[in-house]
Amino acid sequence: MTSLLVERLRQVEQDPSLKQKDRCTQSTVFYRLRPIMIKNHITVTRRHITSRIKNICEEKLGKKREELGIIAADRAQLFFRGRWYDVGLDELPSLVKMGTDLLVIEKEGVAEVLSPFAEKMGIALLNTRGFLTEYAAMLSSLSKQQGCNVAILTDFDVSGLLLAKKVPDIYRIGIDIDTLEYLRLDSGEVEEEYTPDNNHIKPLEEIAVLECDDDLDEYLNFVSHKRIEIDSVLAKVGSNRFWDFLVSRLNETFPTRNYNRAITIPKHVLPTVLEELIELTAEKVASFLKPEYEKITKELAQIYGFFTVDIKQKEEEIVKRLKDKIESDKDLTCTAFGVICSQIY
Fold first, then answer.
1. Are β-strands 83-87 and 70-71 bridged in parallel, bridged antiparallel, or unpaired?
2. How many other CB atoms are there within 10 angstroms of residue 318's CB atom?
3. Taking 80 as the threshold, does the pLDDT of residue 345 lie above it?
4. pTM of model > 0.85
């Protein structure tokens, strides 16, 4: 596989546009490698191959996987001020600027429940859908570097604890025994017995020993046979009370926050008279262009085959066509402007 990635790097260095034109997922790498493995009677799972790509790129090639045009296909979602955003490599530069605080949430559905509260406070919610994707982890780390208060909320079970340990520099806000004490709940009201995943509990036991983590050791005594899910606590106390708990913990852990990450200050504002002028101008222009607009609409409705240019370029051509139309009639433009000014003044 290393030789395949070396060749990919060589190709990208010769033609950097391949990172866009021939962008591929980790599974694509597997399927390109598959004929070679079949020919040489090599039996290796796709999971094994895809799990090694990132390390080979960084350790042997000295490059980030994305520098070879290879992306992770997993997707988390970020909620901020009424909108949901997919979390991918291309979106990271804009998403890291969102939210005074970023709350990473393990359970799918919980972010949706809390979104009305977060929207009012400028807090961003990161829905990991049950596992911390690579880009979600990158977003959390980069947001923290840029002054965002970052915390993570997981179930109180081995999977949730292990998820939080993957981002050790991020504050874990709950669920735990302290959560129950704050909400005045008895563990018997929300706990349930379960069989933990051995692939998750063993790494946690090792971490507890290596880091001499007494809290984790105490947690393991509980989660080795019982768990408390976020949904269980939510169902018991309601979303309002649960949100109050989260805000209290965030405020306690992060006393200050940068509201420039949530509030947009306009670089300019227009006087009301100018806003009215613009609105009236737009109405006059729309009325004049209506026949041309309808003509273009009919043209686009019956296109044989495909355009030979990309859609963005076609849109630019349409804008120029409409602009040429309005600018070609100087008398109408001047008359319309005069009428508009007279209505205002």
1. unpaired
2. 14
3. no
4. no
Which DSSP letter does residue 153 get?
E
The answer to whether 69 and 29 are in contact (CB under 8 A) is: no
Q: Using alpha carbons, list the distances in angstroms from residue 225 to 195, 207, 212.
A: 6, 19, 22
Q: How many CB atoms lie within 10 A of CB 202?
A: 13
Q: What is the DSSP letter of 311?
A: H
How far apart (Å, rounded) are the C-alpha atoms in residues 235 and 116?
17
Q: What is the pLDDT of residues 203-246, one digit of tens each?
A: 888 887 788 877 888 888 888 899 999 988 988 888 889 999 99
Distances (CA, A) of 43 to 12, 50, 83: 29, 14, 44
Alpha helical stretches, state H, the chain: 2-14, 18-21, 26-39, 46-59, 92-95, 110-121, 134-145, 158-165, 177-182, 187-190, 198-210, 214-223, 230-237, 239-253, 272-301, 311-328, 330-344
Residue (of 179, 146, 185) closest to 160 by Cα position = 179
Quote the pLDDT of residue 33: 82
Residue pLDDT, tens place only, 109-128: 888 889 999 999 999 999 98
Q: Are 334 and 263 in contact (CB under 8 A)?
A: no
